[in-house]
Write a structure and sequence with these properties.
Strand content: 15-25%
Distance between the termini: 49 Å
Function: Thiol-specific peroxidase that catalyzes the reduction of hydrogen peroxide and organic hydroperoxides to water and alcohols, respectively.
Radius of gyration: 18 Å
Helix content: 25-40%
GO molecular function: thioredoxin peroxidase activity
Pfam families: 1-cysPrx_C, AhpC-TSA
Number of helices: 7
Catalytic activity: a hydroperoxide + [thioredoxin]-dithiol = an alcohol + [thioredoxin]-disulfide + H2O
Oligomer: single chain
Structural class: alpha+beta
Strand order of the largest sheet: 2-1-5-4-3-8-9
Organism: Paraglomus brasilianum
Amino acid sequence: MTHQEIAQVRKPAPRFTAKAVVDGVFETVSLDSYIQDPEIKYILLFFYPMDFTFVCPTEACVVAIIAFSERIEQFKALKTAVLACSCDSEYSHLAWVNTPKKEGGLGPMKIPLIADKTHEIAKKYGVYLEESGFSLRGLFIIGGDGIVRQITINDTQVGRSTDEALRLIEAFQFSDEFGEVCPVNWKKGASTIKPEVTESKEYFGKQK
C-alpha cells in the first residue's frame, strides 16, 4: 500500500464496504453511503483494538464505545454520523452487544460496529499493528465531501475524549460556515480569528 493510499488530512478518505452490527442486526455499510447522505455533514470513524479483551481496559473499550453511543444525539445535532471499527468479526461484535454491561458487554448500541476481519480498513487508515493483529485507537473526522479533516491516533494505553471529538466537529462546523479560524482551546461561543491580517487584529487585540 502506497503512502498516498493511507488516510491523510486534506485527502479523500479511503473508501470501504464491510459488514457491521447496526441496531442489533447484521448490515453491510459503506463509507460512500454516509458521504452521499445529504443529511450528514461529518463522519466520525474511530478504531479500537479488540472486542472482549484485556487490551482495552484503559479506555476502556466498553466505556468508550458506550460513551460515543450514549452521546449520539449530540453528534446527530451536528449532522455527524459515528462509526466504530475493530478487526473482529461481525459475530464477535454481535456477541459483545448481546452481553450485559455488568458482564463486560456493550448492551444495545446506537452506533454501527464495523467488522474489519481482513484488516483492510485499519491498514488504509494507518492504524493496524501487524505484530499484534489489531488496531491502535484511531479517530478520524471526515467531511461530507469525503475529505479527511482531522486525525488522532493513540497507542493502546491511552483513551480518547468524546468532549474533544464534539469540540473538534463544532470547530470545523463553525469554520466551514463562517470561514474563520478557531484558535487554541476554542469552544463554541468563543472568539474566532478572521483570516485576514487587518481583521485578525480584532481577535488579538482582545488577548491579555
